[in-house]
Amino acid sequence: MERIQAAIQKAKEHRSSVGTAGAPQVRQAKPLARDRSSAPRVPGPIWPELKPFDPDPAVMRANRIVSYDRSDPAHATFDMMRTKALRMMRENGWTSLGVTSPTAACGKTTVSLNLAFSLAHQPDTRTVLMDIDLRRPAVAHHIGLTEPQSMASVLQGTRELTENFVRYGETLAIGTSTRGVRSASEILQHSSTGRMLTAVKAQFRPDVIIYDLPPMLVNDDVMAFLPHVDCVLLVAAAERSRLDEIDKCEQDLAEQTNVLGVILNKCRYPGEEYGYY
Ligand SMILES: Nc1ncnc2c1ncn2[C@@H]1O[C@H](COP(=O)(O)OP(=O)(O)OP(=O)(O)O)[C@@H](O)[C@H]1O
Ligand SMILES: [Mg+2]
User: Fold this and answer.
1) Cα–Cα distance list, 90 to 34, 125, 229, 230, 247 (Å)
2) What counts of helices (H) and strands (E) characterise the chain?
3) Quick one: pLDDT at residue 229?
4) What residue's CA is closest to ligand 1, atom 15?
5) Of 65, 78, 121, 215, which is least packed with CB atoms within 10 Å of its CB?
């Protein structure tokens, strides 16, 4: 508990030092650019070709995807997170958001999916969620998608986007893997990955791309992928993530990209399941 309090205190001090009380911190390590137009963008050509997928609400509930049917009041936290993240991304012209954590099992996939489904409730926003945890993919499992899928093959250019992405409603596309690969770092650094991500942007024309990334302190997969993201969310787990780990990850991320915020997950305050600061 002391660790959580120290983390929150630290975050508060940092927030007040940047003068934006209540807002997640942003470090601008990269020049701002991109499409700042507020005009609605035309959907990419691929959307009608994607196979529709309606998750089983019981599976979603069991896996804590509370933004799906919104029966759990915790979904409001993700709606707030969505609104803040979207505002900051739009203001800065960013479209791609990576979700990572210091170590395993902090809740990256849970947060990525909750954000994606929260965004799916916004009819004017097209979102693509991609499982980039190539070694230990979990998005498919969390939503109960059992058909064999492989993001590694997509990134290597050997599998069609239409085969590997499913569509929920009209505005959320999800690309998953059902098996892990060992050569994740090499695939993520290969030039074909950059080409395929460009193709994803051209085919989907999304407002937001969420990349569910691996943990940072386990291997170099995240560092290999960071050139492809505009900003990141760092997910820390209360009672599990150490402050020095969070600090190290935040610093490493801030050198390469924009840190949109740190999420303190698995935090048990009265009446709250999720902490966000
Ligand atoms: N706020 C929360 N409260 C309780 N349990 C949670 C919370 N968030 C996630 N979990 C649970 O913790 C476990 C790990 O979550 P998740 O798979 O999202 O983590 P991850 O960081 O993606 O893990 P990995 O590093 O293996 O990819 C899951 O069983 C998930 O349901
Ligand atoms: Mg995961």
Assistant:
1) 10, 11, 14, 11, 27
2) 12, 8
3) 98
4) 107
5) 121
Q: Which fold has domain 2-11+24-29+42-265?
A: Rossmann fold (3.40.50)
Cα(36)–Cα(32) distance, rounded to whole angstroms? Answer: 10
Q: How far is the CA of 101 from the centre of ligand 2 (A)?
A: 9
Q: Tell me how far apart the alpha carbons of residues 181 and 131 are, in angstroms, rounded to a whole number.
A: 13
Domain map (residue ranges) of the chain: 2-11+24-29+42-265
The residues lining ligand 1, judged by C-beta closer than 6 Å to any ligand atom, are 63-64, 101, 104-110, 133, 136, 138, 215, 265-266, 273-274
Of all protein residues, the one whose alpha carbon is nearest to atom 11 of ligand 1 is 107
Q: Relative to the CA of 215, which ligand 1 atom is closest?
A: 25
Report pLDDT digits (tens) over 135-192: 999 999 999 999 999 999 999 999 999 999 999 999 999 999 999 999 999 999 999 9
Distance CA 28, CA 19 (A): 15
Across residues 195-207, what is the average pLDDT? Answer: 98
